[in-house]
């Protein structure tokens, strides 16, 4: 089986994808600068899969020479790319950092791939490329008009990929996923951002007696006034990345796919679900809206079902239960404070 380089493979979705790749008999090179990723996550995966070759290289995606050398020395035949700044709010406050890392950094990786002769690229994109929805569920034909710098930087890469394919022969799959959530059901790895911005782990922390949760706006045009989002389990996203890689390896064409459950949940519904799992209500307050937050984002994933044979296996209860199990077993996460945005 071939070797795959996973940029950002020590992070949340990246590490779960490394596990899925190992289970699918791939060897993996984790390339991560560890500013937000966790070396412990990689070490756990190495120990759990002694039959696979999982190696770690500490490096930055802006270092094109190191990326190219890593590709050439490991013989990697594909790159799965997760190494991005990911906060909508952070992108509003510091768009320079987002364009530098998410656009320039990704172009640096692709240029290194071209120099090393690596032709398969799976890109972690986002529903934030769509902006304000015009339809109840977003399919791949929905117009892309981002309303924050995070979405703009991901869309810039999506738009570049066809041109790069023409010039270099690099075929790609961009996976636009919605709200990644949950944790590895085996309890091996999980979610640990510092500070945490995702709703479910913040709600769990509040329910466990931590800082009360702030709901950002209750005056949206939704049935209870709070934002609607589509929550998809991180292991389902990992499985989609493996399916995308296999599509490219089989000679399939480049593609762009939306990944979600197809079901929208309001913030209040998520708090109710967390309360049911943990057995106590989630304390919360109401605050102002955050800049760059659409009222509703729900996926239509029919194209992924047809072309990648992908459908999510985990529902909301499993998402919350696996997240609760991880955070209960690891109240301090992997340990060590890290910024969320790298």
Tell me about this structure:
The protein is an alpha/beta fold and 342 residues long. It has a domain at 3-180 and 232-260: NAD(P)-binding Rossmann-like Domain (Rossmann fold). It has 11 helices and 13 strands. It has helices at 12-23, 39-48, 64-74, 88-93, 95-116, 149-168, 199-207, 234-249, 267-278, 302-307, 316-329; strands spanning 3-7, 27-32, 54-58, 78-81, 120-126, 171-177, 179-181, 213-216, 228-233, 255-259, 264-266, 284-287, 296-297. A 7-stranded parallel β-sheet has the order 3-2-1-4-5-6-10, sandwiched between helices. Strands 7, 9, 11 and 13 form a 4-stranded mixed β-sheet that branches. Strand 1, helix 1 and strand 2 form a beta-alpha-beta unit. The radius of gyration is 19 Å and the shape is globular. The two termini are 31 Å apart. The relative contact order is 0.16. The mean pLDDT is 94.
Count of extended strands: 13
- Rg to the nearest angstrom? 19 Å
By helix and strand content, what is the structural category?
alpha/beta
User: Which CATH top level class of the domain at 3-180 and 232-260 fits?
Assistant: Alpha Beta
Give the overall form: globular
Alpha-carbon distance between the two ends:
31 Å
Beta-strand fraction estimate = 15-25%
The helix/strand series, from N terminus to C terminus, equals EHEHEHEHHEHEEHEEHEEHEEHH
CATH architectural label of the domain at 3-180 and 232-260 = 3-Layer(aba) Sandwich
* Helix proportion: 40-55%
CATH topology name of the domain at 3-180 and 232-260: Rossmann fold
**Mean pLDDT over the full residue set:** 94
The order of strands across the largest sheet is 3-2-1-4-5-6-10
Instruction: Report the total helices.
Output: 11
CATH superfamily of the domain at 3-180 and 232-260: NAD(P)-binding Rossmann-like Domain
Largest sheet: 7 strands, parallel
Low-confidence blocks of residues: none
């Amino acid at each position: 089986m071939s070797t795959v380089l996973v940029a950002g493979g020590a992070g949340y979705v990246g590490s779960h994808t490394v596990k899925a790749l190992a289970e699918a008999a791939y060897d993996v090179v984790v390339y991560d600068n560890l500013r937000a990723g966790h070396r412990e996550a990689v070490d756990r995966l190495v120990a759990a899969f002694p039959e696979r070759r999982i190696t770690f290289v500490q490096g930055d995606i802006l270092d094109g020479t190191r990326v190219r050398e890593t590709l050439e020395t490991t013989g990697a035949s594909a790159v799965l790319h997760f190494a991005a700044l990911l906060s909508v709010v952070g992108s509003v406050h510091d768009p320079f950092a987002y364009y530098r890392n998410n656009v320039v950094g990704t172009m640096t990786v692709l240029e290194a791939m071209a120099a090393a002769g690596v032709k398969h690229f799976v890109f972690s994109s986002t529903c934030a490329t769509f902006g304000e929805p015009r339809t109840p569920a977003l399919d791949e034909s929905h117009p892309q008009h981002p309303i924050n710098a995070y979405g703009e930087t991901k869309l810039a890469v999506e738009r570049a990929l066809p041109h790069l394919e023409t010039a270099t022969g690099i075929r790609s799959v961009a996976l636009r996923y919605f709200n990644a959530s949950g944790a590895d059901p085996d309890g091996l790895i999980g979610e640990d951002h510092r500070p945490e911005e995702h709703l479910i782990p913040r709600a769990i922390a509040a329910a466990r007696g931590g800082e009360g949760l702030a709901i950002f706006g209750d005056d949206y045009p939704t049935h209870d006034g709070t934002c609607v989002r589509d929550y998809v389990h991180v292991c389902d996203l990992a499985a989609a990345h493996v399916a995308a890689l296999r599509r490219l390896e089989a000679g399939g064409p480049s593609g762009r796919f939306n990944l979600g459950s197809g079901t929208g949940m309001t913030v209040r519904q998520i708090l109710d679900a967390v309360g049911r799992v943990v057995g106590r209500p989630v304390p919360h307050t109401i605050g102002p809206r955050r800049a760059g937050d659409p009222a509703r984002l729900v996926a239509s994933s029919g194209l992924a079902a047809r072309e990648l044979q992908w459908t999510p296996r985990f529902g909301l209860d499993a998402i919350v239960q696996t997240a609760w199990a991880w955070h209960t077993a690891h109240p301090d996460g992997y340990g060590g404070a890290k910024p969320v945005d790298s």
